[in-house]
Design brief:
With 196 residues, the protein is mainly β. It contains 3 helices and 16 strands. It folds into 2 domains: 97 residues, Hedgehog/Intein (Hint) domain (Endonuclease - Pi-scei, Chain A, domain 1, Beta Complex), CATH 2.170.16; 88 residues, no CATH class. The strands form 4 sheets. Strands 1, 2, 3, 4, 5, 6, 7 and 14 form an 8-stranded antiparallel sheet that branches.
């Protein structure tokens, strides 16, 4: 689950407009499509009620479901939130169960058209924060990033090292889960994996 202030970009296919804002704003824009399921507010997107696209690492992917989950009414005090930060300053705040694909750039193969395909290991933020020395230090893992410039070379980079993953005090009353057609999506310029 990602934090309400997480920045996203979305394309409303019917109006052909691209909007940037936080996930709460995206949810508010389409709340009229929502329904309550298991105490959560769920918005299902399909081609019949107007497609909405969000960026993934290949371009745009169709948004299938956006779920707003209340966190303040949990008996155990709510979820534990973790802030993952990269060496170039990109960061994302999510719950312990937020999936992050970690890449090892030494494992690469060529695709059908000659493109580079990087292997990744899918971990949750809780595993990264629990033992960052093992996950980060030994494996030298990276995340896929968007709009990131290396200040030393002044060139655009597609991957950035994970610098830290620390528990943070987040008093937000809701979090959001995203489901896309490609299973990837971009939030705060870091590529994540579906949480649903």
């Amino acid at each position: 689950m990602i934090d309400i202030e997480t920045q996203l970009q979305w394309l409303d296919v019917d109006s052909a407009t691209v909007t940037s804002g936080n996930v709460g704003q995206l949810f508010g824009r389409y709340i009229h499509r929502g329904m309550v399921q298991d105490n959560n507010m769920v918005i299902n997107f399909d081609l019949n009620n107007g497609a909405v696209l969000i960026p993934d690492w290949k371009g745009w992917t169709r948004l299938i479901r956006l779920t707003r989950v209340p966190t303040s009414d949990k008996c155990d005090g709510g979820p534990k939130w973790i802030k993952l930060t990269t060496s170039l300053g990109k960061s994302i705040v999510g719950t312990e169960d937020t999936f992050v694909p970690l890449y090892n750039q030494t494992k690469v193969s060529s695709g059908f058209h000659g493109e580079s395909k990087y292997f990744y290991e899918l971990l949750v933020l809780g595993d990264i924060a629990f033992d960052p020395g093992d996950i980060i230090g030994d494996r030298k893992c990276t995340v896929r990033v968007r709009r990131c410039i290396d200040p030393v070379t002044d060139s655009s980079v597609d991957f950035d090292m994970v610098a830290s993953a620390e528990y943070v005090n987040n008093k937000t009353s809701v979090g959001y889960d995203i489901l896309t057609a490609s299973e990837f999506y971009n939030a705060n310029d870091i590529y994540l994996w579906n949480n649903q």
